[in-house]
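anyone seen this seq b4? input:
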Amino acid sequence: MNDQAFTQNRELSWLAFNDRVLTEATDETVPLLERLKFVSIFTSNLDEFFMIRVGSLFDLANVNADAKDKRSGWTPEEQLQAIYTAVQPLYRKREAICAALEKQLRLHGVCRLHYNELEGPEQKFCNQYFKNSIAPIISPQIVDTHHPFPHLRNKVIHVGAWLKYKNRDVFAVIPLPDALPPVLFLPGGDLRYIHMEEVLLAFVEQIFSNYAVREKVVFCVTRNADINPEDDTYDFDSDDFRKKMKKVLKQRMRLAPVRLELSKSISADFANYLKTRLPVTDRQIFVTSAPLKLSYAFSLAAKLPEVKRRALTYAPFTPCLYGELNPNESIIRQVMRKDRLLSYPFESMVPFLNLIREASEDPAVISIKITIYRLASKAKLVDYLCAAAERGKDVTVLIELRARFDEQNNIDWSERLEEAGCTVLYGFEEYKVHSKICLITRREHGEIRTITQVGTGNYNEKTAEQYTDVALLTADRRIGEDATEFFKNMSIGNLEGSYQQLLVAPVSLKSAIMERIDAEIAKRDQGRIRIKINSITDVDLIEKLKQASCAGVKIDMIVRGICCILPGVPGKTENLRVVSIVGRYLEHSRIYCFGEGAGEQMYISSADFMTRNTTRRVEVACPIYDKEVRAKLHRIMDACFADNVKARVLQSDGTYALCPKEGAPVDSQQLMMDQALRRQAEGPAPEPEEHRGIFRKLKGLFSK
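predicted toks r here
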């Protein structure tokens, strides 16, 4: 694709998304502590962006400096320059927002303090804390002929000092120990706290008492973390693979710097020293008075009295436990009768977990098979899978050890699963397994029956309360047969499998989507496409959507993050509309709809329209046949497209604009929370007569 008139660079598109996250921190309808959390999310997002995306561009520049990005036509160096230029104003914006939020939070008694702001008793408290808890565990180091420049670990906060000793300039550094908390809460009535690096900074003169301290600064180095364990050939023996991943994690801490953050400006001599030793260039240095890390923002609310907590945070929302399911009846029996759809975080993951627990105890269950990409640090799912294996059931877990930044967690879980007797697989040398699919196989009255779960998000009990995702539970034989074939192929390393219902990457997903877009193109201006995804970068799918727009097909897309196709470009994408929603929850579900009415084809999937998903991962898209499940997914899509509070509309120049405030305000996530609460209050709807009849027959069979 050489025509870049209707496409944009993926990195700048991602930065625009992260800017929308930061902008949420300025929304005065959002409670103050929640706004601070958005600044924290922006910060951690940017950290990962530098470690992965900027790191990979540095690698690409070294390997193939002339490589051109297909969407912008830029070389790696041109992309890096555009990134560094775009990030500087984001730092200034973040700094201003942080200062404004902290000023407002002080009015509520929530105060981040500098050391010189501490009152007498607070300084005394800090002095004692330094003496008892910090001084014994810090490792200060000077750099001279006998002490080499140390390795500065990735994303660890350091205090650096420019010292004078006998007419010599000396650099000194103190890493902030991992054992220390990020902030020190001070005694007293209000919630007053100081960053641990601020405490350490205050005692630099005492630590280096034999030197004259000329300058001191808090700083943090971000390193390239884009290690690809598939780069080397290795035996896929499970122990060897785990050892390989552990080595990768150690390597990640030592790769080349891509960014240096400073808490304030430093002298030219000090800066030149750091630039030479790290090394970094001027464009890689970012000076900010805002905290370098803000993850502590998520712990502040717990330290507040209830009245203040209610004023400064979202009203609590607990995912509805059962939605349309009956809590007093077997989940297995309910799914055997009818397809069910769980919608997170408005509905809980508990019914799915209970399904696995029930399956682990059900004598009729022969096997449970599941693919796992990310899990919570505490996972009931693993407990139930282990219990099933210990009860003699065949439990197969395909766990992806290369889920970035969750590698160690997945290594630990794989060892636990193996110890319990589960068969643990690790996927493929060149393809990550990103699919979210689970298959329960039962033998009932001599007949084999299946229950299949296909989801858009991970089996992570924590993020299921933070991300919007959907999960289908179905006893449809057609889908069960494909799921059975899928797991058979995964276990024998076959990526070329053929499926009748499921669309499976890397073989059939992309081509099937292209075929369905072609079918809409054939309808010309009667064609209709509605897509909800996180990102779109795949140049073939972008080109195909452009063709559909040119043919008159009406295309509506919800794209939360990276969107490399630009809507509204004359003669290219005039019939394409793209909106992005950034709100209380992370929009994460992937829903594809082709056509409308009786002929509409609808899928849910784990895959975004990114090349990595369509050609370099194992992904699954599942058709939706049940009319009530389809209606529920339509309600989700309709709510998102109707959003005029949190939604932003992508413009043809790559910027985003507020949705027109036509009619009543619609916040799609709040709407779905309200609907879920209403359904829970009403209780599950009574089953149709034909379902009750089937249940009576089943009950009769079991009683014989």
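Residues 520-666 form a domain with the Endonuclease; Chain A fold (CATH 3.30.870.10). Residues 229-238, 694-704 have pLDDT under 50 and may be disordered. kinda curious what u guys think
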